Amino acid sequence: MQWLDQIKWDRDGLVPVIAQELGSGDILMFAWMNRDALARTAERGEAVYWSRSRQKLWHKGEESGHIQQVHEIRMDCDNDVLLLTITQHGHEPGIACHTGRHSCFFQALRDGQWSAVEPVIKDPATIYKA
Amino acid sequence: MQWLDQIKWDRDGLVPVIAQELGSGDILMFAWMNRDALARTAERGEAVYWSRSRQKLWHKGEESGHIQQVHEIRMDCDNDVLLLTITQHGHEPGIACHTGRHSCFFQALRDGQWSAVEPVIKDPATIYKA
After folding, report:
1. Where in the cell is it found (chains A, B) (predicted)?
2. B interface with A, Cβ–Cβ below 8 Å
3. What residues of chain B score a pLDDT lower than 50?
């Protein structure tokens, strides 16, 4: 598809993706997509990423149930970064982070050190079943 | 400094950085920092990126006057992505994009094609002097 060809994929065939929550505007996570992941995301309206650590497609929420419904896909001026507007399903408030927090960006630089400044909403052990 | 050592720099010694506007929550841009850029950002309280195209430090606004004041620096759960909370100075409303738009993420996927959905606030030719 032509819109997929317009993206400047990096040397690994990936593009960085920012997931922003509809309504709150909170940045919930950052991940990567390859062409296949993005095509599936657009088709099903749910975020499908490329897991660099596992080297496979990762339908977010496939294990945790924390699906991300995609409302809009935006691209930056250089055609090499994507921004998703999403609703984080599976829990209220939404949990995007594998640590059981709302957002992956829970560490803030304070007085020269990183401090966890967001609460764990749910014990990760109860999110991911064995 | 220890907090800089805790970041997982990529194979090029860089970390991806998301710049989010204080108040509006708008994502204004996405760029990269190396260790030196981040140290300077933290020290001066203004965003200093690493320009991959020019291969040099890039104090955002050095040419355009569109300085980014940094209120907070956050890090994600994998220690490999940063999120800045900023105020975009130099124009009201803030212009972060070199195209003269508020945000770099002005292209939205609509009906299978990318459409520019945000207005140009200021002619780029008048932003960057020769």
Report:
1. Cytoplasm
2. 1-3, 6, 16, 18, 20, 24-27, 29-30, 42, 72-79, 81, 83, 97-99, 101, 104-109, 112-114
3. none
CATH number of residue A65's parent domain: 3.10.20.810
**CB-based contacts of B14, cutoff 8 Å, min separation 6:** B32, B33, B34, B50, B52
**Does pLDDT of A106 surpass 90?**
yes
Give the pLDDT of residue A129: 64
Say if A65 falls within a structural domain.
Answer: yes
Evaluate whether residue A16 is within a structural domain. Answer: yes
pLDDT at position B129: 64
User: Where in the sequence is the domain holding A26, given as residue range(s)?
Assistant: 2-95
Distance CA(B17)–CA(B83), nearest Å, equals: 6
Q: What phi and psi values does residue B105 have, to the nearest 5 degrees?
A: -95, 65
For A81, the closest of B6, B30, B109 (CB atoms) is B30
Q: Please tell me the distance from the alpha carbon of residue A67 to that of residue B85, in angstroms, as a whole number.
A: 26
- Concatenating the DSSP letter of every residue in A37-106 gives HHHHHHHHSB-EEEETTTTEEEETTTTT---EEEEEEEE-TTS--EEEEEEE-SSSS---STTS-S-S--
State yes or no: pLDDT of A128 exceeds 80: no
Report whether the peptide linkage leading into residue A119 is cis, meaning its omega lies within 30 degrees of zero: no
User: Per the domain annotation, does B117 fall within a domain?
Assistant: no
- Note whether A26 and B25 are within 8 A (CB): yes
CB A66 within 8 A of CB A48: no
Query: How many domains are contained in chain A?
Result: 1
- What average pLDDT does this structure show over A124-129? 81
